[in-house]
Give the backbone structure.
Amino acid sequence: MTEAPFDPSEDGATMNLRGRMSYGGYLRLDKLLDAQEPLSSAHDEMLFIIQHQTSELWMKLAIHELNAACRRIAEDDLRPAFKMLSRVSRILEQLNSAWDVLRTMTPSEYTHFREALGQSSGFQSHQYRMIEYLAGNKNAAMMRPHEHDGALLARLEAVRQAPSLYDQTIRALHRRGLAIDEKVLERDVATTHVADGGVRAAWASVYRDPRRFWELYELAEKLVDFEDYFRRWRFNHVTTVERVIGFKRGTGGTSGVSYLRRMLDVVLFPELWQVRTEL
């Protein structure tokens, strides 16, 4: 004999939400779930939209965490930054998993709605650009797709002009007694950091005596974790694009796979990778 259906109100659950904060109200699900507006009748366009929208939500959280980590490192409060950077790595893991879902879409399925995308492209994601700028890849040319939006352009420029996560880390090395050349400390932070022998030597000191420099040692590994997952994300992007459109040009006008493969050569924290060879 089956038991009577369980009534959550008997366990104290609030069932009458009139005039009260609800789950859907707190999360603004009315707006969130109404934000998917396919432009074609293709079944798979919903997958394409949701995959990219959820990726943008995860990127928003990554930006929130990276900004906070930058502030903490600048204040020499490294331990909270470790948690934030670990969270960013887990976010990138989620973004990597999203490509697995998108890869269930075949080339023939994508062709049913690709023309509806016009010139829109993930290449134009301003949040992706912010993540790169926060990490230190300060390519000013990548501002140009956003010139039509003055407010957004100003936000991106502010991030580009500010010290990156790696700039703040190098300054922390200096504050903790490791020799960093003045030209590195005083460089134009609106440009991409170029690998420096003195910075590499500082990291070598950290890795050779982790007990003495434990917090810097842990920070280094958090940064390597971050870049490791970031590289996987870019690689999975290349693989997904090649699987779905081959070597066609991207909707945003880039060379598609060829362009994305070029991005695989970008190194965010060069000395942290170089130092491994000499240890």
The chain has a mean pLDDT of 91. Residues 93 and 140 are 27 Å apart (CA to CA). The chain has 13 helices and no strands. The radius of gyration is 23 Å.
